[in-house]
Structures are given as structure tokens and as C-alpha cells.
Amino acid sequence: MAPIPTPPAEPQDSPDGYVGLAAERAERLAHERGWSTVRSLPPGAIITMEYRAGRLNFEVRDGRVARAWKG
């Protein structure tokens, strides 16, 4: 049986720190802090709920991050 792969470590970074930032700045900062994938979404977007280690999601309203969460 093949071993279960170990997911990559996530940055020691709180998603709450991105709320209120301009979307472009938040995305650039997230990549600088080690997030491998950053996903910007409009409010109410329909998304799949699979968890991806290393991904940071932003809900963007009027060009600013209104909500941020891992996965």
C-alpha cells in the first residue's frame, strides 16, 4: 500500500489580517508570505468546498477584501 502523502505546511499567517486591504495588495502580500494559491471571489460566488492546503480565499467587494479563509 502506498503511503499517504503529507500535505505541505501552510504559512503561519492569519487570514483575518487581509480583511480591508485592497484586493491586489492582499493577493501580492499573500504570495510573499508563502501562500501557493490565492483565489479572489465575488460575493456569493458558487465554489467547490474541497480543502486545498496552501490556498487562501478572498471574498472581494468594491475592490477590497471583505472576508478571507484558508483552503
Description:
Strands 1-2-3 form a three-stranded mixed beta sheet, covered by helices on one side. The protein is α+β, with helices and mostly antiparallel strands and 71 residues long. Helix content is 14%, strand content 27%. The longest helix is centred in the middle third of the chain and has 10 residues, at 23-32. The protein contains one helix and three strands.
Give the SSE map.
Elements: H1 23-32, E1 37-41, E2 55-61, E3 64-70
Parallel strand pairs: 1-2
Antiparallel strand pairs: 2-3
Short description:
The protein has 71 residues and is an alpha+beta fold. The protein contains 1 helix and 3 strands, in the order αβββ. The model has no long low-confidence stretch (mean pLDDT 93).
The residue ranges in which pLDDT falls below 50 over 5 or more consecutive positions are: none
The largest sheet has its strands arranged as 1-2-3
Helical percent range? Answer: 10-25%
Categorize the overall geometry.
globular
**What summary fits the major beta sheet?**
3 strands, mixed
Please compute the radius of gyration using only Cα atoms.
Answer: 13 Å
How many β-strand runs? 3
**Distance, first to last CA:** 28 Å
Could you say which structural class the secondary elements and strand pairing correspond to?
Answer: alpha+beta
Please, what is the average pLDDT? Answer: 93
Number of helices: 1
- What is the helix/strand order? HEEE
Q: Top keywords for this entry?
A:
71 residues; alpha+beta; 1 helix
